[in-house]
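Student: Send me a single protein entry containing the residue sequence and its fold in token form, directly below this note:

Tutor:
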Amino acid sequence: MVQIAPSTDIRGEAQGDVHPDDPTCLFGAAASPGAVRESWSEKKKVDGAWQAYRLANRELYMSSFIRVPSVFYKARWWFTRVMHRRLLVLRGLTVTVGEVVVLTSILLLSGWASYWSCCGYKATGDLTCVPFVLVFLFSSRHSVVTFMTGMPYERLLFYHKLFAILALAFTAVHAFTYKGTQDTVPEQVAYDTTGTGWMPRSGVVLTSAHVAMLLGSLYIFRRRLFEAFLRVHYFLAVVIIVISVLHHAFWVSLGAALWAIEWLFRALVILNNRSICNRCIFHRLPGDVVKISFPTKGFMYRGGQHFMICIPQVSYFEWHPFSISSAPHEPMTTMHVRVLGDWTQKLHSLLEAGRVEEMPVLIDGPFGGPSIDLDHNYRLFMFVSGGIGITPMQS
């Protein structure tokens, strides 16, 4: 839990919140001194909010091999500022512009699906591809959506699940439309170029794989068998891509291409980090804790961020997030791992007490971090943590 007290600037105003409205233009009218002071105050608030965003919301894992101009982040900041503007605040409910835009788009898409359901199963099939493409687009930490909008990965997963459910609903509309017209549409035989009834059979395979993915994503399975869930999820995603193309749902290949680009970018980040740090130092500490460290030189990160790491000597296929426990200015970047599961137990058993060992490590990131600028907007803040949860606090 983090409890932060907003500082007070020279105007006597709290800097904890960003003003939701744009600065008022006073040109063309005689402005009173009070209005001029208010306009200057609004401008200072906007400038302060931009500086906080500029310092806290750059993708630092890209900085070493891609230079993104500051004007891009300024445009992204204005976009997110508009999308986060509150339209309605009730007891326990807050509605923002971005949420209204997303919900309106979903309603329009659903209405479009209802309209095209009257035009035949082919139209509904093409429309069903749209949420499938969005499912792939909102599935990765390195998604282009995250880069273009600054949307955090946790929010990205929410829309990933939402579009997956929407895709299943559109699939049902497509299936019922096909079922209702198969006896009255003679071109179905011509559409099924194999002449073996492959189209309806492939549709059944697609729907079955989709339902299996949704059921396997339920919290009770995902929480207890995460690694099995993740591998089955990837396998079924590939099955859906292949069968979709064979089912003539070619637009799904666009989502697959975006997904492949994201994986390629992730590989570039990992290779770049590997060129900076190929091996890490491991130290087994008392209390079932393992300290992982490597030289900070070449790495850029902020306090409170985390890495995704893979240790081949433990498992080639498992990636786990660990908070950074060192400060960015320190010469060594450190992470502390508490033994809490099978993977951490294997890592702990590889090391001998009191000995320092080196092992190769794959690093992806850094990711996350505080959503507010602690260094410039606040003069007092208090962190409350317990156990291994102290690691992001002390960074």
